[in-house]
Write a structure and sequence with these properties.
By secondary structure, the protein is of the alpha/beta class. The chain contains eleven helices and twelve strands. Bound molecules: 4'-deoxy-4'-aminopyridoxal-5'-phosphate (PMP). The site of 4'-deoxy-4'-aminopyridoxal-5'-phosphate has 13 residues, from α3.
Amino acid sequence: MTKIDDLPIRDELRGQSPYGAPQLDVPVQLNTNENPYQLPEELVARIAERVAETARNLNRYPDRDAVELREALAAYLTRTTGHPVAREQVWAANGSNEIIQQLLQTFGGPGRTAIGFEPSYSMHALISRGTGTGWISGPRSADFTIDVAAAEAAIAEHRPDVVFVCSPNNPTGTAVAAETVLRLYDAAQAARPSLVIVDEAYVEFSHRDSLLPLLAGRPNLVVTRTMSKAFGAAGLRLGYLAADPAVVDAVQLVRLPYHLSAVTQATALACLEHTDTLLGYVGRLKAERDRLVDALRGLGLEVTDSDANFVQFGRFDDTHAVWQAILDRGVLVRDNGVPGWLRVTAGTPAENDAFLDAVATVIKEL
Ligand code: PMP
């Protein structure tokens, strides 16, 4: 049987593993930071309506510039952050992963490097490798906050072309202060200058405000967002960025023509019409997240403060064995490979109860 390495693939892909969170059919799935609430029926009907309108024109390519959608996303950002964002500052793609890929194709690439402060979202490193961008693993403190002095030193030493700041950070849940981003931005500009990407996939769940207002006067800063989490639309595949309009112009150089299907654009627009209903679930999930933090601490576990829709808990000598024991009780959580720690996504109250029961049993048996 032919194996990958028998093929003439790029050398830097040899021996690498693809992204692969297990998709297992278990009763309680709390492993990929999805929103547990299904879309409300009235929105489902509105999606069907908008998609039907679109279907009549599927003989044509979609709006390549996704103008109506970007207008709606800009309005959402303006309304929720209080910071005016224009359509020219917004770009959309198939999930924020594709946004990140387009940014790396534009600002990274062969001979260039990107840095992230790990543990962090594993796709930052994977998409870097996929685009031929060298990856530098930057430091994080023992409490999972960014050690600003150490991060500044790493930027000065490596002079990366792209700097990733994930806030709230996956998998730890840690939010990053605006002052920290400003210091890293200044360090990155002094060293090269380079593009600083603030990944705000989970910001709607945060106790802190969005870092979006920092965009003013900083053309090398980008904020990335997604409809996969707070909007409860992971299956839609819709991510976006806000930045200086020049950044939006720059990614046009690498985006595929008509990358965002007409069906995706119509569905996303329908979801944005129902923003208030969808974001109504965010409040419930934040309360459940806080309940998980308290309950896990009540069980005597260590828990990292969380600003996201998930919670990092530990510490375990044999992390994988604990993950498996929780799974044996019908609850799928995530082992992100952070030694000693596991991550659980906030689900419905019933799912979280099932998770807490499973953990209580498992740790008694340790
Ligand atoms: N950024 C972070 C920090 C994430 O955790 C995720 C999803 N797990 C993404 C980006 C990508 O999300 P999507 O492609 O669904 O927008």
